[in-house]
Amino acid sequence: MQRVKLDRTDRHILHDLQENGRMTNVELANRAGISAPPCLRRVRALEESGCIHGYHAEVDPKVLGYNVTAFAHVGLDSQAEADLRAFEDLVAGWDNVRECHMLAGETDFILKIVAQDWDDYQRFLTTQLTVAPHVTHVKSALAIRTGKYRPGVPIEIDSDRKPRSDLYLGAKLDQSVGG
Which of the 8 DSSP states describes residue 28? Predict the structure, then answer.
């Protein structure tokens, strides 16, 4: 991935799109203090650089019948890179697994899993997850409620200190997204 230096306007655009991905280019440009054509060029450059991976709608799981969210702490019997990748590839095919993170420590992976009900989760657990190659143990934690859900990362717009979003994201030091 190439390195990208983000200026204040780029950070403003990222902040606003992260909060509302359906914002029009004209509204985004007004909020960033620039005209629409350069704003669109900046958004395209942010997409091409990998800063923006995509856009999505936030869907309420319960409205679609997914009433259970569980976090499964998964331990494997092998931490060989090929086995870790094989597990990640297997998980990628399970639609009810919404997130998969490899961890350092006692647990190798944590999975965020949605299910219609507890029986649906148990069925997934016993027929797919615990029988998967190299899985030695699974500890489940059932989410009771979500006190905070905030996708993305904090993006500082107005600050004298160098924001974390000004850090370089890839390989070239002198390339700038803004323009």
Answer: H
